[in-house]
Amino acid sequence: MNRPNIWSEQKEILFEDNHLLILNKPAGVLVQGDNTGDEPLSVKAAEYLRFKYKKPGAAFVGVAHRLDRPVSGVVALAKTSKALSRLNEMFRDNKVHKTYWALVGKCPEPTSGHLTHWLVKDPIRNVTKAYSERHGQGLKADLDYQVLGQAGNRFLIQVNPITGRPHQIRVQLATGLGTPIVGDVKYGFLNPLPDVSIALHARQLEFEHPVTREAMCFRAPVPEMAHWEAAQTFYTV
């Protein structure tokens, strides 16, 4: 059996033990399967584990959280049902600290702050609308942000979402700050990126190991793409 291409250099693997597989997801890859039928990260990970450990049957891979398809960065997968159950609980109870990097076309004002919106998702169009006041069945969404600095002709924003809503960062930056993410034409950026990704990257995950209870922190380098190149100078931040 050939090793799946995504694992050819193992650059995507940030950490692995008996219970966790932490990956740096490339933009354009689904985390979990959908109606497109495209092979998701969870299946690629199961193939990798089956190949690595020479398993005769399918390997267990549990998905506790997701990143949008055009988004890159840290994804935590569970290799055991115990780890998955506890990870699900930690994500549900907001006990996982998430840090994202986003490139935008102009510097937002103010340069740091807190955003609160009520989000309503249109599942048919796969787009989320943000309201500044309580709205119908809208789900409350909170995030903190700060501008790290100028990265080439863009501005790099660090975002710490407090809740985990569909398209939350994308729609809150576009609606609350008037700064859609580079490449995100769905939420107002004028032009797509050549690879049809968006310049949103799940930079870091911090949580307590679901089994050993050890404090864990995982950072993912940004993609090796031209639009992210200038952001690498902020790696020490």
UniProtKB/TrEMBL annotation:
Keywords carried by this UniProt record: Isomerase
Instruction: Give the matching InterPro entries.
Output: PsdUridine_synth_cat_dom_sf, PsdUridine_synth_RsuA/RluA, RluA_PseudoU_synthase
**In what residue span(s) does the Pseudouridine synthase RsuA/RluA-like domain sit?**
19-174
Looking up Gene3D superfamilies in the UniProt record yields: Pseudouridine synthase
Q: Does the keyword Isomerase apply?
A: yes
The protein in question is named RluA family pseudouridine synthase
Family under the similarity heading: Belongs to the pseudouridine synthase RluA family.
- Superkingdom of origin organism: Bacteria
